[in-house]
Design goal:
single chain, 441 residues, alpha+beta
Length: 441
């Protein structure tokens, strides 16, 4: 915590942030503000207000976190991984909540969605950025915006536009070799056009019904006389892949695993897709089929040139699983999914303090070796699925809220504790505040 106090304007903000981070690293089963406050022997309201509506700049804190990530993990072959995550949320008052498909529950449900970015390198991984998806009906409703403390500059924006901002912001200070994402980001041709303009290499999954000019057909010859040149026929990528004989695929070993190495049969060809009613530039279509009893087929498009080996494209694509490890470590170790905040400000505060807490045990693991000490291991993450087109203003927008009472965590009057459940020490000797002096806050 010694590097972060300058990013908090007031002493109480620094104190509350340190207390919350210690609580997220504790053995509490529920790591929301109230149990953390009870464990520390302090009143819950100031902690809830600090997380739910505190006027501290979470973007400045997150930018400070990205510095040690780049310093300790920096790698020219690292991958920026994009994912849309869903978090079930009851009620209709939480900022951005709506009925969306929730992979964790396997059905449409009330959820909040966020766009997340992970940095994955040979030395490890980290979650250096995130942004809440604000649906159009929320963005166009001034009453809901005011109630959830959404800043005026936050507008409705598609998910791929948010992802582009995250890549641009994180990629500028972190060495990496490309960006990867699921078909949430590979489907929009506009998103694939964005990194081409910035010389940012990408490997993005696309759905099977993506239409490309048939790579199996050569350019047709112009017939004698007048008339337009005959067009190369188009086809779906899944139909084209199904027609390819096994002899044209190359078998590659992607990575090791507990159940043996992951192997895929892959083939890469040059194709063209449509871009806003016209023919787009050439891309490389990579079709990968896993070598296992029940094989899975994956399809991705990349702007990598012919000098980049197919093995490198496959490596980047299969690095995507690391973001599931990030989510799993965050949920099992520091309560990433245990958010009770309702406001725009609170969501981003929560998604700033959680990675900050997670970074400490990761650093300890790197220093002393051994297993990840942040939790009981990586939990299954079926809930992190593609989000619908989405959110608000660019990630650099100022989110410092106004009315603290409206944004604090849920909960009304103080509730008495059940007899015998917990002993609350006097505030003067509370564990949280005794430890603050040791942090030089």
């Amino acid at each position: 915590m010694q590097r972060y106090p300058p990013r908090f304007r007031r002493l109480e903000q620094r104190t509350d942030a340190a207390l919350v981070i210690r609580g997220r690293l504790s053995g509490l089963q529920r790591k929301t503000c109230e149990p953390i406050a009870v464990e520390a022997g302090v009143h819950r309201k100031p902690i809830q207000i600090s997380v739910g509506a505190g006027k501290w700049d979470d973007e400045a804190v997150m930018a400070e976190l990205r510095r040690p990530v780049a310093e300790e993990l920096g790698d020219d072959r690292a991958v920026l991984i994009l994912a849309a995550s869903t978090f079930p949320k009851s009620g209709a008052d939480s900022c951005g909540v709506g009925r969306h498909w929730c992979g964790r529950l396997g059905k449409p449900e009330n959820c909040r969605r966020g766009i997340s970015l992970a940095y994955a390198a040979a030395g490890g991984y980290a979650p250096p950025d995130r942004w809440l998806y604000l649906p159009e009906d929320w963005a166009d409703d001034p009453n809901r915006r005011k109630k959830c403390l959404a800043p005026e500059e936050v507008e409705f924006r598609q998910g791929w536009r948010i992802a582009a901002d995250l890549v641009e912001r994180c990629g500028s200070g972190s060495p990496h070799g490309g960006a990867a994402g699921d078909d949430e980001f590979g489907r929009p041709a506009q998103f694939r056009a964005w990194p081409r303009r910035r010389v940012e290499r990408y490997v993005l999954d696309v759905p099977g019904d993506t239409i490309v000019r048939d790579p199996g057909c050569g350019r047709p010859e112009r017939r004698a006389g007048r008339g337009a040149r005959p067009q190369v026929p188009s086809c779906r990528v899944d139909a084209w892949a199904a027609r390819q004989p096994d002899g044209r695929r190359t078998r590659l070993t992607v990575r090791g695993g507990e159940e043996g190495p992951l192997r895929v049969d892959a083939r890469a060809v040059r194709v063209r897709t449509k871009l806003e009613r016209r023919r787009g530039p050439e891309e490389r279509l990579v079709v990968m089929r896993t070598v296992e009893a029940k094989p899975e087929t994956h399809r991705a498009l990349s702007n990598a040139g012919p000098g980049v080996a197919s093995e490198e494209l496959v490596r980047v694509r299969f690095t995507r699983h690391r973001i599931e490890e990030v989510f799993g470590a965050g949920e099992s170790g520091v309560g990433l999914g245990q958010s009770e905040v309702r406001s725009w400000v609170g969501w981003h505060h929560h998604r700033t303090l959680s990675p900050l807490a997670w970074w400490f045990p990761w650093g300890e693991r790197r220093r002393v070796g051994g297993e990840d000490p942040s939790g009981d291991g990586v939990a299954g993450q079926g809930g992190h699925h593609a989000a619908a087109s989405g959110p608000g203003a660019g990630p650099g927008a100022d989110r410092r809220g106004g009315d603290a009472g409206l944004a604090a965590e849920g909960g009304g009057a103080d509730l008495p504790l059940a007899s015998g459940e917990c002993f609350i020490p006097a505030a003067a000797t509370a564990t949280g505040y005794e430890l603050l002096d040791r942090c030089s806050l």
